[in-house]
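notes to self, project folder thing:

trying the whole complex as one job this time. last attempt i did each chain seperately and stitching them together was a nightmare. two parts in total, labels are on each line so i dont mix them up again. if this works i'll redo the older ones the same way
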Amino acid sequence: MSELATKLDDLYARFERAITTADDERALDAARVAFLGRSGEVTAVRRGIGQLPPAERPDAGKVINAAVERMEAALAGAVARIENRAFDTELAQSIDVTFPAIAAPTGSIHPVRRVLQDAVAYFERHGFATVLGMEIEPDYYTFDALNIPATHPAREGFDSFFISDSLLLRPHTSPMQIRTMQAHKPPIAVVAPGKCYRRDAVDARHLFQFHQIEGLLVAEGIHFGHLKGMLTGLCRELFGADQRVRFRPSFFPFTEPSAEVDTTCPKCKGGTAACNMCGGSGWIELGGAGMVHPNVLHEVGYDTGIYTGWAFGFGIERLALTRYDIDDIRRFVDCDPDFLRQLA
Amino acid sequence: MRVPISWLREYVDLPRDAHEIADRLAMLGFPVEEIAERPTISGVVVGKIVTIEKHPNADRLQVCMVDAGGETPLQIATAATNVAVDQVIPVATIGARLPHLTIEPRKMRGVESQGMMCSAEELALPAEWFEDGIMQLDATTPLGINVVDLFGLDDAVLDVEVTSNRVDAMSVIGLARELAASYGAPLRLPSFENPGTAEEPAGAAPRVTIESPDCTRFVAQRFDGVRVGDAPVWMRIRLALAGQRPISNLVDISNYVMLETAQPLHFYDASRIQDAHLIARDAREGETLVTLDEVERTLTPLALVIADAAGALGLAGLMGGAASEVRAGTTAIVLEAANFEGVRVRRMSMQIGLRSEASSRHEKTLAPALTEIGAARAAQLLVQLGARAYRPRAFGADLVPAPAIELPVRDVERLLGLKLDATRISQHLERLGCTVTPGEHTLAVTPPAWRRDLVIAADLIEEVARVEGYDTIAAIEPSVPSHDIPSAQYDLETKLAATLASLGYHEILTYSLQGQSVLDKVARAGITPSHDRVEVRNPLSEDQRYLRWALAPGMLEYAARIDAPVRFFEIGHVFARERSVGEISMLTFGFAVEPNDEPAWRDTHFLRLKGDCEALLRAVCGITVEATRDTRAGLHPGKTAVMMHDGREVANFGKIDPRVAHSFGVRLPVYVCNIFLEHIPEYRTPRYHPPSKFPSTARDLALVINLDVTAEQVSSVTRRAIGALCLGVRAFDEYRGPQVGEERKSLAIRATIGRYDATITDEEADAAIGRAIDALREELGATIRT
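result (full assembly):
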């Protein structure tokens, strides 16, 4: 018995030496074949069981099996050691993760469109559709139908580019109010973003072409409080949750009551006299709004006894200037690649 | 309009703080553009010069004893030369603070001086509008009282913006009424009673003949015993604070009443009106008139004039004439308080190129009732100056009260979302001057005579909301009813923009209006436009005369400006004139890029552009549109393709013609793709085709073909010859060179062959390729390279 044990101990010691010194998977496999293989040394020892007295044979089998288990465990450890050595080489690598990224070849959407899309998304989430119109409009849609007759002094306020006696580049997106109401029966819930033109000399605050977003909600039971609700929500969507919105009385021929809409300056939060964004007033003017004038509803054949509605028109460049803290409106048309990349 | 707060305080009690008043005005619909704060002035009182003596030690100085209301007169040395005994003047006493100095007792050349007599400038009034030297106050001013309080010199001046519908509020009373209504404070108005009751001497009664419907009303009133001189100091200071230069008592009164009531006035020297008979009529063609500003103006019938039998005396509501102007010796005057159609005044003003404070009010059409009010206030002030007033005589339309407006009480809540009871609604309207007769469910509201903008119930509801305060209306998100208005066009643009951004293009905006220079650049490259340009009639400058007919020219200018590799796109409208003006939506994308070193028959940039175009269209319409060779003006004739769908051109693309690029000054090659948004096919949802479960095989062929045979022809012949076993054909290489000869090119294609029901055998594949080779040889004259 002790003879067998001694033999197995010696066997194990030699096996262990072989797998410890093995440098790769092949050497390891050779050791495995030599000791644990079909005609390996362990098999030779097993054959020797038959020469033992019958009473000792079962124990001898157990002892041999235990030794094999030990050897296999040692082998598994050696295999893992060899495998891990390959990972270790890779894991030993280390780089400077602060090294500048290799830029993705991405493009960008113009900041004006991005603000427009965000505003539209807010309204679409609330059930509004988005409609687009033409930039050349007859004066009927631009003025007459909007309760601005030819003699009205407000007409000159829209210093428009004329194509002919009656065709002009739209100075506001409000013609879409008429076009939408003529094309559809109430209820109406639309926003109409688009390009507009006015004869303004180009400077840091003015372009002769700009974008507006028009909004129109006409249905039963719509009132001024709903206008305040939606536009307050819009300002918070665009500028942040703590944004306050102010509605001041104003005059537009196509709304009554009318309002100018201001929001708290997102830069100075209504604080400093030196703020270059709001000029120290603490407020940013967004545009006009109001309840649709009964004459406008009459013009499209809507029953003012049933339907009321509101409309607004905001300048998108103004929103974008405020949102991205841009110093000069001309940057929108210069489209310097650095400008576009910074705001991408 | 510049409004001194001190003037407003005459009619209504207001808070001390100018910013609070400005905010209140803004919330009433009258934004304040500027709050001009006044410098702090204190310790200035009214004094009277009792004696004047020469200074013992200085020739230029005089020593005055000034009674400033105290126990003993003050001794004040002065260098001013306009001082005289009995003059009433402002005196800065010891400790007084003036804009640039504090008064302390001091010795002037050895003589004690206990204060300083002040000039207008030292009281922060425009020096050039007042007398040189010490300011002269009215002799009756009580001595010792505070000059700053007396004239409101410390109150800020507001620059108030008044919307065009509220010309009645282009007046101090108008704004005071708004503030009184909003604060719920009483309004103290001056009397609008005209003191003139006497009949004129025989033949002196003014008569007016109105020949134009644009003169709606004309109140004329005669005054005798007028002495032209300076207006009272308080009036001059008020005008100066309001930004109006004091001129003479008569001019100042007319300006004062206009600023106070909004009604412009004009005074004629009565002796210069022939037969005391005024005529309001159209000007005669070529008629001339020298206006108050000494400019001779040649008129057309567009001008409305006030004339006498001899000719025009003034431009109605715009500016008086020099000939009938009041002057130093004038003793009798005729006052004009007239009402004109705003459009007429505005058009005349625009045609003549002249605007005045008067026309800025008339052009918005004042209420006719203001004529009476203006005349009455002027008459009161003239009588105070010692003039004799005769009775006012009104011509033109009678004053008829506006009809009452029915205001259903529930409409206030219906429109505002704010519940107010009838009493409160009435109160607000009455504070603004309306007369309200309550009914069962409605109020009958008669607007005040000075308001022309209150016509329908909604107008009144706005008034109620203004007085109540817009900020009291709760903000509520509406529940938007469902509707079936589509957003398809917007969605398409959004998707196009997003796809191009993901393909590495930057969206840009260029001007829709272009100048002749852009047209010239195109013409210089030899391109004749296929359509006429749409021209703007009234451009601000020559660079904005034409509407763009394509997006590419603006992009070429952009590429020239950037002068570096750049990828860009723009979505916008373009315009052309055929029989009528046409406007379509376009998308152009492209890039300026460093040229590749490639043979003349290969252009990788073109293929990349084509790849982006296919990807873009696939994203928005779900299908791949085939490109065919074509030409388009502005694009390189050998590197242009178009994509057609249902007979309509969806896109064209290619390299910019080098002559065009040169003409625009673009150094780098530019490639663009133009897409017609209206022609993009509707999105078609792609269907999934599962791949065969059995392996397929790929065979490459190297063909030699004539130069004019296209990759598409080769693919299509191959596909047809292989038939049902063909899973795909793709050309992957082209070569030209000496090995294949001058007139031929080599094309490598890969055909994928397979079956859906079994693994394809080599024999089947060989047979299929054999069919393809035969067909290519027969139909396209191809030979196989080995």
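what i see at first glance: The longest strand of chain A covers residues 209-220.
need to look closer tmrw
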